[in-house]
Design goal:
Blueprint (H helix, E strand, L loop, with lengths): L2 H13 L2 H8 L3 H15 L4 E3 L4 E3 L1 H28 L16 H13 L16
Antiparallel strand pairs: 1-2
Helix pairs in contact: 1-2, 1-3, 1-4
Length: about 130
């Protein structure tokens, strides 16, 4: 299994149509079908239920689709960390906050950024409440 297989899987899972997925990936349908078959053989499961009229995710395919995007997220985070380290960034502090954060905390973070302008601040965009 390689990243190409995972990219192809995501495209077919989102399109639910091999021809459209192949077009989206700028490849022919035959290599796409072959790659999906290789992935299914590697995993030992059928990821898609194919009929002459439709393609849909199997139960295993639905579960796999929940996990695969995390691989790409982790890879991007690794790339970002390596680039940050190359430009002098030495560590990471992760802080989870809720909507009821006192203004003092925001002031504290702003003061830290002023004191160390090379520090980075990122918002994960995830709600702690799951909304």
């Amino acid at each position: 299994m390689d990243l190409r297989h995972l990219r192809y899987f995501i495209a077919v899972a989102e399109e639910l149509h091999f021809a459209r997925a192949a077009e989206r990936l700028h490849i022919e349908q035959s290599p796409l079908s072959r790659a999906i078959k290789e992935l299914e053989e590697d995993l030992g499961v059928q990821l898609f239920v194919r009929t002459t009229r439709s393609t849909r995710l199997s139960r295993a395919g639905k579960l796999f689709l929940e996990h695969v995007p995390r691989v790409f997220t982790a890879l991007q985070q690794a790339r970002d960390s390596v680039k940050a380290a190359a430009s002098g960034f030495h560590g990471q502090l992760r802080v989870a906050v809720s909507d009821g954060v006192p203004p003092r905390f925001s002031s504290f973070l702003a003061a830290r950024r002023r004191k160390n302008p090379r520090s980075q601040s990122r918002d994960s965009g995830r709600s702690l409440l799951g909304y």
